[in-house]
Specification:
With 203 residues, the protein is α/β, with parallel strands linked by helices. The protein is 46% helix and 14% strand. The longest helix has 21 residues. The radius of gyration is 19 Å and the shape is globular.
Length: 203
């Protein structure tokens, strides 16, 4: 396999990137000077060194040397500890934060549960979710998931694994309501759409 094909194959594993676009990335790199390439390589190399995973919400954040590996959102004492919002991925969390509509805590599931998945607990951070709910004892857990079949299937699975805890801790389980169109991924929703979905969440 030649180097152009090899790199294109790597880029094609990125979310939403097909084979044609991945080839464009490779040819774009070929047009850049040595300084650009060196900076690109150094940045990719430093990525794992500089980024940590928050011990509580599980999101990626800059600051590997922070105390107890807690991100700024989880360390913020001004945020509402009674609300815990579950999102699929980091970019969803960032999108919700930009909307300014939510001031509670988060938990990043790290993925979705595909329909007919035989091992759903391996597709999301199920064990970590149970532990953080037991620790935080929230009054409400909000399922901020995409309005598509995989998002709905993930919501059903989350409800299942939290069922016994809900009886024990007596928290409300709600989901984003009107505002998100069917088939919409949260990642691509604008601020007003997120605000409406949050305000009109169903319980």
């Amino acid at each position: 396999m030649d180097i152009i094909t090899k790199l294109a194959d790597i880029f094609s594993t990125f979310p939403g990137i097909g084979k044609r676009q991945s080839k464009r990335f490779v040819y774009h790199l070929l047009l850049q000077d040595k300084k650009f390439i060196d900076n690109f390589i150094a940045s990719v190399t430093e990525l794992k060194k500089e980024i940590a995973v928050c011990a509580e919400c599980q999101r990626f954040f800059v600051g590997r040397e922070t105390e107890k590996h807690i991100c700024t959102l989880c360390a913020d004492s001004q945020r509402d500890t009674g609300a815990l919002m579950l999102v699929e991925k980091d970019i969803d969390l960032e999108n919700i934060e930009k909307s300014g509509a939510y001031k509670g805590k988060y938990f990043v599931l790290g993925g979705v549960v595909p329909i007919l998945e035989e091992n759903p607990e391996e597709k999301i951070r199920a064990d970590a979710l149970v532990k953080i709910v037991e620790k935080r004892k929230p009054k409400e857990i909000i399922l901020a998931l995409s309005a598509n079949p995989e998002g709905e299937n993930t919501a059903l699975f989350v409800q299942k694994i939290l069922a016994s805890l809900q009886k024990k801790l007596d928290f409300t389980l709600s989901a984003f309501g009107r505002g998100l169109s069917t088939g919409t991924e949260l990642e691509y929703s604008d601020a007003d759409t997120i605000k409406n979905a949050l305000v009109n969440r169903t319980k």
